[in-house]
């Protein structure tokens, strides 16, 4: 666990956790903890049992905000896109009057990215820290959305150029991930809306208005992923259409080849009969003439089919 006094964006490490129980003369305390530290933090800051239980739970937590007597408990989901897979990581935040506690099970990029912003904005209050952190979390969905869009475009290009059976599994997998994200974005959007509209005594009234901008971004993200879901449906139709066209193309080629061999089969069938009264069989050049006719007929039909672009 890392404990810092944040005053005007300046970080001062704190070694004694007992110091954080008393409000500092200026600034606030940021305790960056993991779930194992909750056993020590809960009695010191009177963290609610249900909130601590949510942090420790192995089950996936929905984004939410809980209002308790001396602190708020907020859960938002940070997003990552690694190796073509999307991951959501819960970011648990306890917001107090003079402190903010962030609790995570895995490393979250936004907690590192927020540090220079605290310096630039000369942040001295925990509610301002919360605003910047949630703003970063929300903005990161845009960058992931851009990568998903690029993946959709590449998949569409691959399907149009050379359709493979593996494309269908990619379409189904990506569509499932988009629907999953869409489901998560709903409650997260409501959390941000609560921070924007509800009367919250631990968040400054002037700062609370800024959450409306984050809420608008959350709405845009939700609409964007709705569009991606529709695109995946169109992509699946394109895949099925491409497969059908490919099958039709193969059948057309087979039909053309079969058609070419029909007159050749007719000729060989005629001369394969066991009739004795076939004068041309006794002719010295009959074999070469018939063979030439067959080759000429096959070549002529092949030329005509190629000219009409049937094969």
Any overview of this molecule?
- Strand 6 and strand 7 form a beta hairpin.
- The relative contact order is 0.08.
- The chain is built from eight helices and seven strands; from the N terminus they run βββααββββαααααα.
- Helix 4 packs antiparallel against helix 5 (166-197).
- Helix content is 59%, strand content 16%.
- It is of the alpha+beta class and 311 residues long.
- The protein has helices at residues 38-45, 49-56, 109-120, 126-161, 166-197, 205-208, 211-270, 286-307, and strands at residues 2-7, 10-13, 28-34, 64-67, 72-82, 85-95, 99-104.
- The chain has a seven-stranded mixed β-sheet.
Write the SSE topology:
Layout: E1 2-7, E2 10-13, E3 28-34, H1 38-45, H2 49-56, E4 64-67, E5 72-82, E6 85-95, E7 99-104, H3 109-120, H4 126-161, H5 166-197, H6 205-208, H7 211-270, H8 286-307
Parallel strand pairs: 3-7
Antiparallel strand pairs: 1-2, 1-3, 4-5, 5-6, 6-7
Helix pairs in contact: 3-4, 4-5, 4-7, 5-7, 7-8
């Amino acid at each position: 666990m890392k404990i810092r006094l944040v005053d005007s964006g300046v970080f001062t490490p704190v070694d004694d956790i007992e110091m954080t129980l008393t409000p500092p003369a200026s600034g606030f305390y940021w305790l960056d903890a993991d779930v194992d530290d909750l056993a020590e933090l809960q009695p010191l800051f009177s963290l609610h049992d249900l909130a601590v239980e949510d942090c420790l739970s192995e089950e996936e937590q929905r984004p939410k905000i809980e209002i308790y007597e001396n602190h708020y408990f907020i859960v938002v989901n940070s997003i990552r896109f690694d190796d073509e897979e999307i991951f959501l990581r819960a970011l648990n935040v306890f917001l107090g009057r003079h402190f903010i506690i962030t609790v995570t099970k895995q490393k979250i990029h936004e907690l590192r990215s927020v540090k220079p912003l605290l310096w630039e904005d000369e942040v001295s209050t925990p509610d301002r820290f919360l605003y910047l952190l949630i703003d970063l979390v929300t903005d990161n969905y845009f960058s992931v959305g851009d990568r998903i869009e690029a993946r959709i475009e590449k998949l569409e290009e691959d399907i149009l150029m050379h359709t493979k059976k593996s494309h269908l599994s990619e379409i189904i997998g990506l569509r499932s991930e988009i629907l999953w994200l869409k489901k998560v974005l709903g409650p997260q959007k409501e959390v941000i809306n609560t921070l924007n509209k509800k009367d919250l005594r631990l968040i400054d009234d002037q700062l609370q208005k800024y959450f409306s901008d984050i809420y608008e971004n959350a709405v845009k993200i939700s609409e964007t992923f709705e569009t991606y879901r529709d695109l995946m449906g169109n992509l699946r139709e394109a895949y099925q259409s491409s497969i059908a066209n490919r099958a039709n193309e193969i059948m057309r080629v087979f039909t053309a080849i079969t058609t070419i061999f029909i007159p050749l089969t007719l000729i060989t069938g005629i001369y394969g009969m066991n009739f004795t009264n076939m004068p041309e069989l006794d002719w010295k050049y009959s074999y070469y003439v018939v063979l030439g006719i067959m080759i000429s007929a096959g070549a002529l039909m092949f030329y005509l089919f190629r000219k009409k672009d049937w094969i």
